[in-house]
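Dear support,

Our group has been running a series of protein-ligand predictions, and this particular one with cobalamin is the one our PI (initials K.S.) wants archived with full inputs and outputs. We had some confusion internally about which version of the output was final, so please treat the block below as the authoritative record. The input we submitted was:
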Amino acid sequence: MDPAEIIEKGLAEGMNEVGIRFERGKLFLPHVMMAADAMTAGVDALKDLMPEGASGSKLGVIVNGTVEGDVHDIGKAIVSTMLQSAGFEVHDIGRDVPTKNFIAKAKEVNADMIGISALMTTTLQGQRDVIELLKEEGMRDKVKVMVGGAPATQAWADKIGADCYAENASEAVAKAKELLL
Ligand code: B12
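Confirmed final output from the archive:
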């Protein structure tokens, strides 16, 4: 099987099911943490089997991170891995990332696009903060912005002026190609 398919249709589906049972009070936080660790280990094992990406020329430079105050990074890590294996140069700056660090990294690596993840309704605003800071720094025209994470929607992306929203990692790859190629 294609490793990307194992991640999306196997591991991520399992993680979603754990999320649903957690919401219904059938599973508790330690179970979610165990499932998250298992998912991270699974993705790590599969990473090496993913194609290296288009050899030679890179499709574009992307900075990807999870907003400040939010420690959820499994989905974001999958997005980074899939973008990388599709041939993009990806700089994953981790989770709970201060707004200014997105901008600093984008400047440092001369990014074509910033990916911003948020998994909680309470941290979603962080995506808007990054876009506003990009405007203040006069960089908005040069850098595309892609947002994602469970509470994000196309309507939210439109509202905050992001260039695109993607629901999952394969959609993120397709939309990044649309925007950058
Ligand atoms: C695993 C998990 C955790 C793990 C995270 C481990 C880790 N390293 O990430 C742990 C146990 C640490 C955790 C902690 C907490 N969590 Co939690 N967690 C989850 C859970 C169950 C699953 C998230 C996940 O990994 N899903 C699997 C991945 C593959 O899916 P995904 O993240 O959605 O990513 C996909 C897409 O969204 C998209 N995507 C993601 N990022 C990006 C970025 C870009 C640019 C793009 C284009 C696309 C994209 O592509 C991904 C791949 O397809 C969710 C429930 C849920 N339904 O989402 C709750 C959930 C997000 N957590 C929640 C909460 C409340 C918390 C805590 C506050 C709990 C607590 N009481 O302490 C803390 C948060 C602390 C903090 N400050 O951040 C709530 C948030 C509620 C809200 N306000 O919105 C949820 C919804 C559960 C719930 N119903 O209560 N959590």
